[in-house]
Write a structure and sequence with these properties.
- The protein is of the alpha/beta class and about 325 residues long.
- It has a single domain, classed as 3-Layer(aba) Sandwich (Rossmann fold), CATH 3.40.50.1360.
- It contains nine helices and twelve strands.
- The protein has a seven-stranded parallel sheet with strand order 1-12-9-6-2-3-5, sandwiched between helices. Strands 4-8-7 form a three-stranded antiparallel sheet. It has a two-stranded antiparallel sheet with strand order 10-11.
Length: about 325
């Protein structure tokens, strides 16, 4: 008997037209059907210095990812280089540990230039006030810049994705790199496989991968409904009416220029064995580079993608 699931019930349902037009749902399903040990099997498009890194628990995940961030900051300082850091606000638990390691090693961040990758906005790109508890600027000030104390990044070297400043990211980063700065990207992945808030449906606006790769940013970008739902759960305690439907965000013209990447997928709730980012992990690693699956291009860059062990699956039904 043919299985009853989304793939053979979508025609004529409310899901028709809901997912981005060029998603290959059968390929997505194939990615998710892999065995847990296959998560490490290298694909031809992976960069030779890209690797998935498993963490047994959320606590391990936060510690390992935080250590990697702190290490890259220390490494650049020891090399006498300026350092561009693009910050993700999701996941967030690693920043506590990045601060802890930097303090233990007594590493100051005077050489760091921090760029928030995105921010909630209205249609015109106006962002939440910095004091708003839901603002990404507030999150970085509270979780990283503030706790570092005297070791922190100078205020003039902190950049936020406002309507006025976001368009200046690309030239600022290019100038820093021209003077020898290293570029490290900290990134997470959304349910619809976005990096920053670079959503999959944006691909419809580009003639192909070459043009898509050159796009540096969007102001007041329309977010996918699944992004709104995910963030209502992870950041707004289920209150979906508080989640903006738009955001300012960097694009592949910036994040694909990184010299090194520190990625994280942490969507697992051990209390109910609830896996909500297993598909996110597998499709990112196994789908193959495609502008309709933004995170699928990330394994082409050097770096590490940290994930919590249960996300590797097996991703099978469980009603317990």
């Amino acid at each position: 008997m043919e299985r009853i699931d989304l793939l053979n019930t979508i025609s004529g349902s409310n899901f028709e037209g809901f997912y981005p037009a060029a998603w290959d749902l059968k390929r997505i399903d194939w990615c998710c059907s892999r065995k847990p040990e296959q998560v490490y099997e290298r694909e031809p498009w992976w960069h030779k210095d890209f690797q998935p890194v498993c963490a047994e628990t959320l606590e391990d995940f936060n510690t390992l990812m935080g250590h990697e961030i702190a290490y890259q900051i220390k490494l650049a300082r020891d090399e006498g280089r300026q350092l561009i850091m693009i910050w993700s606000v999701g996941p967030m638990g690693m920043y506590r540990w990045a601060v802890e390691f930097l303090k233990r090693w007594n590493v100051d961040c005077k050489h760091v230039h921090g760029f928030n990758m995105d921010e909630w906005s209205d249609a015109d790109g106006n962002t939440l006030p910095a004091s708003n508890p839901g603002a990404f600027r507030n999150a970085m000030e509270t979780a990283f810049y503030g706790p570092l104390g005297d070791l922190t990044v100078p205020p003039a070297q902190r950049h936020f994705a406002t309507r006025d400043e976001l368009p200046l990211y690309a030239p600022k980063i290019a100038d820093l790199r021209a003077h020898g700065a290293k570029f490290v990207l900290v990134w997470g992945i959304g349910w619809v496989f976005h990096v920053a808030f670079w959503e999959p449906h944006f691909a419809a606006d580009y003639s192909g991968m070459d043009e898509w790769m050159k796009a540096t940013h969007r102001v007041g970008a329309k977010l996918h409904p699944m992004t709104i739902i995910q963030n209502s759960i992870t950041s707004f305690k289920s209150r979906i009416t508080l989640v903006p439907a738009r955001a300012n965000t960097i694009g592949p013209g910036i994040f694909m220029q990184a010299d090194y990447t520190i990625g994280g997928v942490d969507g697992f709730l051990p209390v109910r064995n609830m896996i909500y980012q297993g598909m996110t992990l597998w499709v990112t690693l196994k789908y193959g580079p495609d502008m309709w699956i933004p995170s699928s291009v990330m394994p082409q860059l050097p770096g590490k993608l940290f994930f919590i062990k249960p996300l590797a699956g097996p991703l099978e039904a469980d009603v317990n």
